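This week, think about what follows.
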Amino acid sequence: MDGGSVSGADAGERQSAAASTHPLAYVRRRHGWSYQDLARVIADNARILGVPMAARREKVWRWEHWGVVPEADSQRALARALGIPSRELELRPWPRWLPAHGGMPDGLPWTVEGSFTALTALLDNGASDPRGFPIADEQALLDAIADWDAAGAEGTTGATGSAGSGGAAGAMGSMGSRAVDKKAGSPSAAAGRGSPSPAAGRGSASAAMAERWDEPVPGTRSGRVPRQASAATAFRDDAVDKAVAAAVVDGPVIDWLEAGVLGLRKLDDRLGGAAVRHRVEADLRMVRGLLHRGQHERAHGTRLLRVAADLAQLGGWAATDTGRLGAAQRHYLTGLRLAHSAGDRPLAVALWGGLALHAVIAGQPRDAVAAAEAGVRAAGGTPPAVRALAASRLSRAHAAVGADGASRRAVSEAERQLDLAERESGPSWLYWFDAAELAAQTGQSLLDLGHAHEARPLLEQALAMQDASYVRDRCLYSARAATARALTGDLEGARTLGREAARLSRHCGSPRIADTLDALKVRLDATR
């Protein structure tokens, strides 16, 4: 059923299912099954189990699109077809037992070792996900946040620096068992600050990883952390890792890597996420190889972890911009783990903010609020610009759930912190978060809340202030301002801005922009 009917042809069903991010939709696509195909597979396996069952595609559609939980016999039959042990159905309720996460690791420790394993899993299984790869459900994200907060309270990290960034091993671990605007929470929440890393002074990331190999994992559930493969076996088949292993990892090398990430961000500003997505993945592989080499100073190891976290954040944004929401979430959660290992709390705030906007775009507003609030907790003690970013993301999240007052309070806090930021510089990667960006995000929040008359001047202000080189953002702001004009009765002005957005869109491929322009066209066509 596409858009409400379960009677379409199989080809149409396969095409429309690309819009679904339910784990079952990914399983179907991976096997090339239509709704009817899967219904037959389940019925055939049910008969082998001694349970007569009709092959009705309607029920499969309801499982994916209405959130209906299959009866126990259907689940057992599907598990048999997929080769899933029946005990998994007892350990992980539907749909978490479905093999839809590409082998993402479960229950990793809050160490450099855990970060390595998560990064490897991302690059091997999650970086190039097709559209429709499933994203974590609400409980999985809440579990991830709880693990993050617990690790922050423990003050543990597997690399140098403090654990104040909050950590993300639990977040990544939650992805495996329990079921994200680029430029990413409650102000009253306190940030976990953590203590100095016990790994400080050990000489290298690899040394820290080796020394912490058999240590107990703080804050994890007993029995959930399997014995993991060593770094040597984890990377032995990667040609890129072997090639970079011969490199000398020193300050200039890392300077070039850091400058490269900043350059990729500015390319994304102009050309959109599709233009940089594969380059981000390639650079992540290079950094992973350098980390694996391990023959570098302790400070260089920390900087490499920070570069990896920065690339993961950009990768998450690029995946969001290109409609690959499952891949985006995996990038953000992996980045959180890397930021924790690097002791970089401001970058962790950006990653939580990315998860919050990802959830808004994915239509999961409660997840957006939870992620944004985690970002606010992580932002305690960070520069004002970082706290302004966290508050702005919280405003968008509250607007998505219709919490008008909470959204406005968060905007006020963001404005206050951005004023303070004029006297205290923030991280270099936060160059884009300025008055124009805050006006645009506030305007979008007001649009989401149904206040088009208030949103319109802010969106037009953002458009007037925005750097002309930020082609993708100018395109998006033009489309949003056109929507506000249409909603306030200025149809001719809306068409003018819409044409400008369409012109700019030719230079920056982005499904988000295409969706916004399509919705605007439908609105304007209805008024003719």
The mean pLDDT is 76. Residues 298-321 form the longest helix (24 residues).
